[in-house]
Amino acid sequence: MISLEISDVFIQNGETDIEISCLVKCSDQTIIRGIQLMRSNKSILYLWNNKIHWHDLDLRNRSEATAKTSCSDGDVLFLRVEIPSSMIKPSKDIGSYMCRLRGLTSYGGLLQEDSEKVMLKVIGNLIYVLFTRKDC
């Protein structure tokens, strides 16, 4: 139901923007309450009540976040952050990224689902995107 998407597998440091998106396929069976983007198990931004809330203020000053907040059956809701190439700080931006979905099922049960983890790693002048399994 929730997935994480990174703009490119090879990001040229200083030349390529980094775009990280949390994507949720909407369904009549769930009510979406929030989407969280995490780096190295720490929240960096959160979509709650149709508003973006920043936890990483340094990243907030270097990037732009957008979201699609209306969700009907079959639509895709998203939370996206874009870091311009000139603002990338490898020492701060590398790490393991993951999205977390919180909501309710149509039966009133609590729903929490995590996406797969994706690792951004710097090797020389390239930032590599390494995909890991959901349960890692």
Structure report:
7% of the residues lie in helices and 57% in strands. The two termini are 18 Å apart. The model has no long low-confidence stretch (mean pLDDT 87). The relative contact order is 0.27. It has 136 residues and is mainly beta.
List the helices and strands and how they pair.
Elements: E1 2-6, E2 10-12, E3 18-25, E4 30-39, E5 42-48, E6 51-54, H1 57-62, E7 64-68, E8 76-83, H2 90-93, E9 95-105, E10 110-114, E11 118-123, E12 126-131
Antiparallel strand pairs: 1-3, 2-12, 3-8, 4-5, 4-9, 5-6, 7-8, 9-10, 9-11, 11-12
Computed CA radius of gyration, to the nearest angstrom: 15 Å
Q: Which regions are unreliable across 5 or more consecutive residues at pLDDT < 50? A: none
Percent of residues in helices: under 10%
Q: Helical region count?
A: 2
| Percent strand | over 45%
**Structural class estimated from helices and strands:** mainly beta
What gross morphology would you assign? elongated
What is the tally of beta strands?
Answer: 12
Mean pLDDT: 87
Q: Termini separation (Å)?
A: 18 Å
The description of the largest β-sheet is: 8 strands, antiparallel
Order of helices and strands: EEEEEEHEEHEEEE
